[in-house]
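Troubleshooting: if your tokenizer reports a length mismatch, compare your output against this known-good record of 363 residues.
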Amino acid sequence: MTYVSLADLERAARAGLPGEIWDFLAGGSGTESSLVANRTALERIFLIPRMLRDLTDTTTEVEILGRRAALPIAVAPVAYQRLFHPEGELAAARAARNAGVPYTICTLSSVALEEITAVGGRPWFQLYWLREEKRSLELVRRAEDSGCEAIVFTVDVPWMGRRLRDMRNGFALPESVTAANFDAGTAAHRRTQGASAVADHTAREFAPATWESVEAVRAHTGLPVVLKGVLAVEDARRAVEAGADGIVVSNHGGRQLDGAVPGIEMLGEIAAAVAGGCEVLLDGGIRSGGDVLKAIALGASAVLVGRPVMWGLAAAGQDGVRLVLDLLADEFRNAMGLAGCDSVSAIRRLSTRTLGTADDPGK
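Known-good structure output:
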């Protein structure tokens, strides 16, 4: 089959995965209003391209958290990737390494973080706050010792949102898929009608993070610390005060608070508020290189891409993930040139319009 867009890979993944595993990947919380809004918000944003620019030396390279990357893209943390392919995180990490972009290892990875970092490349580690602070900080230390380049601290999961697809399916992990980074017991494998075993497991293991948790992580590592899940301007400013090196503007892909504003809606305001005090990244709803261009024009230094990478993994393993990243690279470079930009920094000088609002000049 020929894949010319991420939507092609989405269809292949959906056709190849069992229904309840597809629902685990694709679903959101509640009525999925935030999940849908992530795409709707991006689709309403339009760019004002510039013409007659010299594009001879166009480059997509960028610096993210002090290191060069081939694209302003990182692979987002996604739990239990062996649900989608037997090689799971190893296949995805190898593809990210070969594409020259960071790969974020999830606390709930189905392969131990040390095995994933052994692949090489640009590994980051995503942290969920566990009930015992000591265990959380042990994960931070393991990540640093094994070669991770940043700690991405997810702050929007005091507990899991009500993901109704999983509840209706009575979703539980198969015995072959486990949380490989710590002894998690059997809760995630215990199927109960009308309930998500994964949600039950996280309720047992996770604790709500606080600003004191951020201070503990910041004091425990010399790595850059990025707070993922920030939507309020006030929280973004406080993140800078707390010493965060970056924030990810995100509503967790519509999987936490149903009704939370899409990250792209808050991106420009947050980027202006932090005024360079830390890097600002965007997560949620990115489905093309054009979407990446929009995010950077609105103030992001880079974006995180999650579900599309898993579509590639499910469709064709490592080769599928690499195809996703290659498609994004081709689309991004094409969009850059058509917008009159020869570099990522030039994109930040583009203007945008959001149609259907007061910003719409046709109103």
